[in-house]
User: Fold these one by one.
Assistant:
Number 1:
Amino acid sequence: MILLPDPGAGRLLWQLAYQDLSPADTEALTNHYQTCRGPFRGFTFIDPTDNMFVSSSDLTNTAWGKSESVQVESGQADPVNGTGGFALTNTGETDAYFTQTLPVPASYAYTLSLYLQSAGASIVKLIRGGPSEQQITTVSVGPQWTRVLSSGALNDYGTSLSAGIILSAGQQVSAFGLQLEAQPSPSQYRATAQTGGVYTEAHWSANEFVVVATGNELFSTTFGIDTAI
Amino acid sequence: MPTFPLLSSGAVAQYSLPVLTGQAVQTIRFLDGADQRYLIQGRTFRQWEIRLTLLTDSEIAQLQTFFTEQQGDYTKFDFPDPLSGQMIPNCRLLIPEMTCSYEGVGASSTLLYVTETNG
C-alpha cells in the first residue's frame, strides 16, 4: 500500500504474513518487536519486493562508487531492445571498482545480478564485500547479453555491504540491470531511481504483535512495517 | 498466588493459540513526514487467547470455579505460559465475564483472555 497524503510525507506500508514458522523464527521476530519497543524505535528494513540498489537505471548517479579510472557512458543498447545500457571502461592499468555500498548487515545471504556484454570473450569479477570479508565471483561474458550473478552469505558481522563489479586494466563492458536482493537467487530485474529497497528508519506499524501457535512447534503471524518515503 | 488451572491432559491451552505482545506507543506525525514517538506503557505485556473446546464437565467446572475465585478480572494469578513453559506472575483475566457453552455430554467450550500486568 502506498499513501501519499502530502508532498514529502508519503508512507510505505508492508503487510507481511508468515505461516508454519519454527519456534526459533518466531522467537527472533518477537525479540525484535520487544527490542524495538513496538513502533517506538526504528530499524533497517530491506524491501523483499524491490531492488536494494539506488539508481540502478542510472549508473552515472553519485550513489555508485567507482575508481577514478572508471568511465561511465550512458545511452548504450540494452538486452531489452532499449538504450538503457551503460558502457563501463577502466582506463587505468590496475583493477578498478564499480560498486555501491549499502547500510545493511553484511552477513545476510545476498544475490548480486546484472546483465553484461563485451565486444569479445572476457572475464569479469563480481564482488560482494563487508567491512572485513569479500567474496569475488568470476564470470565469463561475450558479445551476447548474459545475466550473471554472485550469491552467498559472508562471515562478516559488519553493518555495511558493497556490491558491484571489478574491471581489469583496460577492460570495457556494457552493463544493465544491476540488482541486489537479500535472498539466495535472483528475481526479475526491477529498475530503481532515487530510492532503493533499503529503508533505514522503518517501524513496526502496530502496538500489538500477534503470534498464533497453530500446531506443535508451528506458528503463524501477520504484521505491518511502515516507513516514510 | 493462585495458578491458572490445567486441563486433565496437563495442557494449559489448545491449538490454535494466539499470543499477543503489546507495547503502547503514541506517534505524532507532522505534515513534512517527520514524526515524534513516545512510550505510553512502561514495558511490553503479553496476552493469551485461551480458546478451549471438548472440555469434560469437571474441566469446565474447574475453570468456572477459578473464574469465580478470581472475581473475574479483579485478582492476580500465576499463568503457566503454554509456549515457553515459564510461570508468568501477575496475570489477570482480561474481561469480567465468562461464557460457557454446553454442547453435549463432556463437550463444553469456553474462551478466556489472560493478560500480563505490572502486578
Note: The longest helix of chain B spans residues 57-69.
Number 2:
Amino acid sequence: MTERALEAALPTGRHRPPNATAVIGGLLLALVVLASAVAPLLSSADPVKPQFSRRLAPPWGLGGTATHVLGTDNLGRDILARLLHGGRISLALAAVSVVIAAAVGIVVGLVAGSGGERVDAMFMRLADVQLALPVIMLAIAIVAVVGTSPAALVGVLALSGWVLYARTVRANVLTIRRLEYVEAAYTLGASDLRIITRHILPNTLAPILVIGSSQFATMVLLESGLSFLGMGIQAPQPSWGLMLSEGRDYLSNAWWLATVPGLAISVVVLGANLLGDGLRDLLDPHAG
Amino acid sequence: MRGYALRRLGQAALTLLGVSVLVFVVLRVLPGDPAKMLLPEGAPQSAVDELNRHLGLREPLHVQYAIFIRSVSRGDFGQSFQYRAPALQVVTERLAATAQLALAAMFLTGTVGVSLGIVAAVQRGSRYDFASTFFAVLGQSLPNFWLGIMLILLFGVALRWLPTSGFESWRHLVLPAVTLAAFPTALVTRLTRSSMLEILGRDYIRTGRAKGLAERAVVLRHALRNAAVPVLTVLGLQIGTLLGGAVITESVFAWPGMGKLVVDAIFFRDFPVVQTVLIFSATIFVLINLLVDLLYTVIDPRIRYS
C-alpha cells in the first residue's frame, strides 16, 4: 500500500530506481511485524502463565533446549512467546499513535497554513511549548495522573508526535498556495476544501510518509521506555520495555533476559529509521 | 539585532507561559481532585482543607491558575512530601548531578559527533565514511536503556572495568555519559556529514583549494565554520533529548539527578516535585535555545536580524 501511495505522491512520468536502504529497512520491519502478527503459530507457549520449574533456562545452543529457543525468564515463561506477544502490543500502540499524531498534525498544519497569520502564530507557539518539555517527562507526568491504560499511552504518544506533521504540512501549504496552478484554481472559483484535497494534500503525502516511518521508531522507543520505567504496559502483560526492566536484575546469571527484548526493539527501530531515510532519499534527493 | 533579541526574548517568555499552562492542566485539571494528588495518602481532612484554601482549589480554574503562577514566580513550588522540604530546594540539590552528566554527554556529542562527521564528509565513500555512518545509524536505533544495560553487562559484570552505578568519581560518569550521548552523537555525526558535504561542493571551497590553501585550512576554517550553523541549532535542540534521556539513563545507573528524582517522585506520588522538575527542564531548554539563536550572529556574521 505504501508503494502505491508513494507512486501517487511522486511526480508522474519519472521513474526512480528502488532504494536499497528503504528496502532493507522495510524488510526488517516487515519481518518483526509479520512474526508478531502470527505469534500463536510460532510459539504455543503461554506468554503470561508462570512455570516455576523451568526458571531461567538459557537459549537453545547456549545450554538450553529447542523447547525454549530463546530461553525462559525469572518466572519460567517462554521468552520467545513473550517477545512475540509483547511485539503485538508495542507495535500496535506505536502504529495507532503514529496515525493519530499524523491526523492531528495534518489538520493543525492545514489550519495554521491557511487560517491567516494570527492562527498560524498561535499554533506555532503551541508547537514551541510542546517542544520545550522533554517528551518522556511530560509522558510520565500524564500517565501518573490518568493511569497506564493503553488508551492513555496512545494519547500520550500521539500528543508527543503531532508537531512534526503540523510544521511540515504548514510549510507545504504556504508554498503550494503560491504556485501558479493553485492560484489559477482559486481564480476559477475552487473552494478551500477542494484546493486542500486536490492540490495540497497529494503534494504533502510524501513528506508525511517519511515522517511517519521515522516516527514509528520514536514511538516504539518511547513506549518501551515508559514500560521500562514501569509507567507503560503493566505486568504480567508482556512488553519489550517491561521484559528488559525485569531482566535487569538477572544480568550476572541470566544475561539473555535483558538482551533479547532490547535486540527486538533495536531491530524495529533500525528498520523504521532505515525505511524513513530511504524514503527521504527517494523523495527528496537534496536532503541529507 | 537588538530588536531581534527582544523579540526572541518575548517569544521565550511566551513559551514558558504556555508551559506553565500545560503543567497546570496536567497536574491540576486532569486529576479531578488535585488535593488528593498533591497530598500524601491518608492526609487528615484538616490538611486537605488547608491545601484547598492555600491553592484556591475551590475557586474557578482561571483564579487557580493565577494563584499557581503567582506562587511559582515567587519560587514557591509547594512542599515535597517525600523529602519534607520545599520542592524547589529538593530539585536544585539534584541539578548539579544532572548538569554534570548532561555536560559530559554534550562534550562527547560535540567532539565525537563533529569529528566523525567531518572525517566521513572529507573521506566520502571511504571505509571511514561507511564506519561512521554505520555507527550513526546504530546510535540512533539502540534504545538508551538497553545500551546502558548492555554497557553494564560488558564493562561492569563481564570485564569489571567500570562501576555500574553510583555517583562518586569520574569513573562512575563514563558509562552513563556514553549512554546518554549515543543518540545525539549519532544525530550530530550525520548532520555534520551532510552539512559539510554541501559546503565542500561550493565554489569558494574550490577557489580556496585552487589558490593553494592547505587542505586542513580549507576544511576547518572555511568549510566547518559554514557548516556549523545547522549543527549548532541541533546541538541546542538536543538539550531536550539530554534532559529527557537523563530520565532513563539516571534510572539505569542510579545517578542522583533530576531525571531519577522525577521517576522516584512519580512512584511516591510526590507531585510538587514533578511539577518543579517539569518547569525547570522547560526553562533550561528555552533559555539555552535562546542563547543558541543569539550566538548565530557571532558565528556567522552574515546573519543580521533587523
Note: Strands of chain B lie at 79-80, 85-86.
